Amino acid sequence: MADGGGEAAPTSARSRIRRTISTCEPVTLEEVRQMISRDLTASDMLYSSFYAAVRSYRRDTLVRPFPSHFKSEGAAADPHDFERLMAAAEDVPPLADLAGPSPPQGSQVPSGDALIMLGWLAGRCPLRLTTLSPELYNTIQAKSGAATYSLKPDYVFGVEQQEEDARSQRFDALAQEHGVITCYHGTALENFHSILMNGFLSHFNKAALYGEGTYFSSDLSVCMGFIQAGQAWGKSTIGSKLSCVAVCDVVKHPSVTLPGGIIERNLDRASSVGGDRAPDTYVVVPNNDHIRIKYLFVYAEQQARVGPPTSSNSRRCCGGLRRVIAANRFAFSLLCYALMLLVVGLWNTRSVRRWISRMLR
User: Does residue 260 have a pLDDT over 80?
Assistant: First the structure.
């Protein structure tokens, strides 16, 4: 952690960005640079989770709140202009280029939309990520009392509140009264943007076999079976594919199902008629206020390599094609399926087979 003097500039930059967001004023490159330079690796992780959420087919649910700058005025159906937001996301240069006092010669200059998007992300996220040493992994895992997973993460991030709020104060009071248990939550990379922005939201959970709520485990190896590696931001220095696990403190409130605890049946929900006792490592938390994220374990399947800059025309062409496909995934899937049926149909045609046999002679 930096000392008090080192934190003053990023904190004031964040305050200015929050004001510009509320007043719709433009965000400056210097303000974004101050926020990124505080911890380049943590900023990269924050942006990678946001990028994965924007690319997801569930982006309408995951990107909440939605940056107001990218809302279309007067749109009858959907005011969220994801195509414009995706274009801004693709236009962000490597964060290392933005973090330095002066951009490298020939580096990409972010557009106004890209700066506003980065400023919105830095200003709205209520949590601050701090890069920690991966050597702390064993110490952190020992807190849960079930250190059965030996593979160390490539990155460990500490998670702290940017500002004290009512929800944080409620957690502190409950933790002092009931105590806490350290446990883990594994999920897809695209979900972590929503988790960092809004906390855990139990009503999004589909599974309710062992009761309603958000599911955790006191054993990291159990959660590793639920993580889903996601495609990271293409210019990330962390990795090209990332898997994440959240390490959380959970209040041992009477409503929380602790490992091996008795489950209260809900006869009104057909999905909640499992056994009477939860598995030995499961923790089920029905109240979102009983959860606080403490750390992120990040596993990088492949280290990213930012190659030499391509020409602006080829980059714009490739980025435009990706945006068109991303915006019309369903239609593109139907087109591929139709082409496959056409090829199969032609192959089964006798005249086509005779023609192919003549060509091969």
Answer: no
